[in-house]
């Protein structure tokens, strides 16, 4: 039996600080079933090698990949947690569970606060709609109300530096222009919790410098950050806790400011 409870602090308290941002997991399991050709040992070997997750055999010889396996932790206000591990160790799956994209198969996950997910900043965008329409669409995807989006529209538009292109369909944009738009919207909300897969880099040198400052301010204003990274330098500069994952489990926890990443 799984349980997932998410509380939006902003809607409950009006940001008056009565409730504290919190992430708490207890024996968290996220598992994905494999429905075809599950009996073939070659298939199982391939899955194990590519996903890094644990292969579990259920009734009827069905196979599932356990991407997160019995994970427990508590993250409170002021903590910046870095997730380390090889590709397939379960980092991105855990981030997606925290963002609400995946529901636990077993265990409990309690997330208190408004979550900003920077895992796929282009999610929800419509290439046939205008830039302005996509600001609205992406804002809705991130949980903003229409009133909140309208209040932020001018600031977001100005930050993108896209000018008249915002009246044109996004399919006419270059990939860099699309990233500018998605980044500006994604970093415009007042978030209690930020989940991120690596530090974002957007646009050319001049715009990326401006974007880096915005991202740093965005992170500093949040109560909690959880970021997956392969960068030892980033881990030491940004995080005050680190979890090392292997095969879907947390195998080590340390303070990257005082302990070697190893």
Give the second-level CATH assignment, the architecture of the largest domain: 3-Layer(aba) Sandwich
Share of helix, binned: 25-40%
User: Count of DSSP E strands?
Assistant: 11
Mean pLDDT: 85
Beta-strand content bin: 25-35%
Low-confidence stretches: 7-17
Q: Radius of gyration, Cα only, in angstroms?
A: 20 Å
Q: In CATH, what is the class of the largest domain?
A: Alpha Beta
Q: Indicate the CATH topology of the largest domain.
A: Rossmann fold
SSE class? alpha/beta
CATH level-4 homologous superfamily of the largest domain: P-loop containing nucleotide triphosphate hydrolases
Please, could you describe this protein's structure?
This protein is of the alpha/beta class and about 260 residues long. The chain folds into two domains: about 1-50 and about 65-115 and about 230-255, P-loop containing nucleotide triphosphate hydrolases (Rossmann fold), CATH 3.40.50; about 130-220, no CATH class. It is built from eight helices and eleven strands. The strands form two sheets. Strands 7-8-9-5-10-11 form a six-stranded mixed sheet, with helices on one face. It has a five-stranded mixed sheet with strand order 1-6-2-4-3. A hairpin with a 5-residue loop joins strand 3 (about 55) and strand 4. The two termini are about 35 Å apart.
